[in-house]
Amino acid sequence: MLGVMEDYHYEEGIVHVPPDSVVIGYSDGLVEPENAYGEEFGVSRLEAAAQRVRHARPRHIAESLMTAAEEWSGSPEQADDMTVIVARLG
User: What would the mean pLDDT of 25-40 be, rounded to a whole number?
Assistant: First the structure.
């Protein structure tokens, strides 16, 4: 479990996904970079970027997502860590 916080309600469940699905785990540093207007990269842009490369190898997907967030911010400098884990389910 990641991001364990005291007094936070967690729910357990099961999600059935089809074969060849891609699972992406990421830190907040991937969605929080801001552009020159103060707009965050955000989850919707992350999802769109992932859709564009969804058939690629996991390593390429991860690299593409980090590049997309960096390009959005217009700077290679990161204010926070960027962590991405990509797995293709068999």
Answer: 92
Q: Determine the distance from the C-alpha atom of residue 58 to the mean position of all C-alpha atoms in its chain, rounded to a whole number.
A: 12
Task: Write out the chain in H/E/C secondary structure.
Answer: CCCCCCCCCCCCCCCCCCCCCEEEEECHHHHCCECCCCCECHHHHHHHHHHHCCCCCHHHHHHHHHHHHHHHHCCCCCCCCCCEEEEECC
Angle between helices 42-52 and 58-73 (to 10 degrees): 140
**At residue 36, does pLDDT exceed 80?**
yes
Backbone angles phi, psi at 78, to 5 degrees: -105, 135
CA–CA dist 41, 36 (Å, integer): 11
